[in-house]
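Hi,

Apologies if this is the wrong queue. I'm a grad student, and the batch job for Acyltransferase family protein from Actinotignum timonense produced an output file that my downstream script rejects. I'm not sure whether the problem is my script or the file. Here is the sequence I used:
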Amino acid sequence: MPQSSRTTPSPLPAAGTSAPGTPAQAAGRPAPAARPEQPAPRTTRIRALDGIRALAIIAVVLYHMRPALLTGGFVGVTVFFVLSGFLITRSVLRELSRERRFSYRRYLRRRLLRLWPPVLVTIAGAALLSYLIAPSLLPKVQADALPAALFASNWVYIFREVPYFAASGLPSPLTHLWYLGVLAQFYLVWPFILLALRRVRYSTLRIVAGLALASALLMAVLFFAGPDSTRAYYGLDTRAAELLIGALAALVSPYVASLWPRADSTTTPQPPAHSATAAFALRVGTGAALLALLALAVWADGESALTYAGGLTTTALLTALIVLTVHNPRLGLSRVLASAPFAYVGSRSFSLYLVHYPLLLLMNPATRTAEISGAAKIGQLLVVGLVAELFYRCVEQPSARLARAGWRAGLRGWWTGLRAWRSDIRAWRTGPRSWRSWRGLVSKHHLSDTIFAVLSAVSLLLVALLAFAPIPWQRLADSRAVALRPELAAPAPAISAPAVSGAAPGEAAASTNPGNPGSPANPATSASPNSAPEPSPTPAQGALQPIATQVPANMDTSAWAKDPATGVCSANAVMIGDSVTLGATEALREVLPNSVVDGKVSRQFAAGAEVFAQRQALGEKPRVLIYALGSNGPIGSEADIQKLVDAAQGLPVYFVTNRSPLEAQNPNNELLKSYAASHPNVGIIDWWAATEGHEEFLRDDGIHLTPTGQQHFATLIQQALCGA
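Support response: The file is valid. Your script probably expects a header line. Output copied below for reference.
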């Protein structure tokens, strides 16, 4: 994205002219009449490439909406990779052809000055906004600040084993900067590879194509060999295929350009007749490629094996085809992509990419339990666009000017302009004042450069504090979170009466687990029949009537009793869950003292069957089995659910629906309900529905429970066994 899409006219002299000292002058012949000196032609931006950028950034932004409005929008990053590979390769080759030598120092300085200041401002802005609005995100920003500033986020996420598509808990507002890490790493090494290829006799095209193929194969191998897509998705070696395909497009672009008819057919030699067929094929292929890209943006799946076994590579090839053909301004698609709206959005794609993710994360808190309206979504997009425009004018454009001029010249120019601006302000105060004169004054002296200098200095200082200052960031975030949401620290009163559906139950004491921020978490906790005092229930009149979305048909409650005064039930169940269950262990233990609660941090859905087998090996014989799993990733299919049901060996089974900000939430819940609808001995406890409109039940990550939420969760489970 940050690489400029500009072309430079050929440095060769025009036809019919001779340079000083040419054979014509040496032979004594009069030199041709000197032509009037023309100004050096300015480089022109290929507006159609901005149109491609616009489509890509729109896809990425819609993908990061909550919920995602374009489930395959992540392919927009592949489009950016191809464009970057294309432009950086063409830039290096152009410099080599013009100067016969390549200055790596100048090349690297330009790229770093182009990228680094905007990234620093993004990190600093994300930290400040997180502290003010969503303090639970601040420790994540602090942990990612240094890797992001050093363009190493992608490898840090690999080492931390942080999956992009199935990360549990709150994502970091800086997650999207992994892309710039891959890009900067490619910028570092690619000129050396390209220079080395110019020295070998073997075809450069074939070598680059071979490297791209090797990278694509490595992506597929690592995806199938690893536990998830993390290594395949983040690695430079696996994403290099997309960048190298862009480089291939740059290498073949002169040939493709020769296929198009010239605008001046009377004076410029035209391509041979057979090229017309090739040009027509390119037109048709480009239209089909664009339609295919749009289809991928709608239907691609980030966790599908097809995405890594050729899907992203295919996306890159389709993008390269479009990039190669839109150079022809006479092509209808080129004119559409070069139109003003597309060119405007595309020219700001870098700023949009940097600001959209943290803004959308902050505007869509994980604790939100109700769907937002279409008007609210449009409002969020307008906020993103406005902030991106300010970022473009005050950060991206000054950064680009600094990259062209260099640090020293840029600082000198800024200081000179600032002094002149102060002088002109004094003159403006004593002269006629108007909005037009003030706007001209601001434009004349580049007020944005001054803002950029201040923002860069402050951001550098703040990033240094985030990276190196011995500040208790977690404690700072917790205190701010409690100030914004007092319910996070509210004491939980003991249960005094049973809860009825729709009424507010009492709150149970909070346990030391992930449900309470800052407290240590045990990897697994179980509440056994011996871990709590036996209840002394008063038998209910008649059989207990369980209350749940769907009650297992084979569940027998005749041996259970419930104390109407305390809400304690003698049901004998085993509940297997993840950190949500772990956080509610104490609340569950109070109302179900004869039941076993086994919760563990990051437990996956598929682990449920094995955990129950371990419980049976310990001699436990429950009357009902409850699975509260699925908060940490997608379930898969009904076959995966069937495995957990089979493990129950005929026992009644309950599944608890999920409440989480992950994309897997709705598919998981729909899959569980669909399965239960066709299996009468399987029940549903709908925690998702119980939390609707109750943000006070959830901590800032949108998954774990406040003391109030823990009590409601325990009451919901109790009612599913013993009724109200």
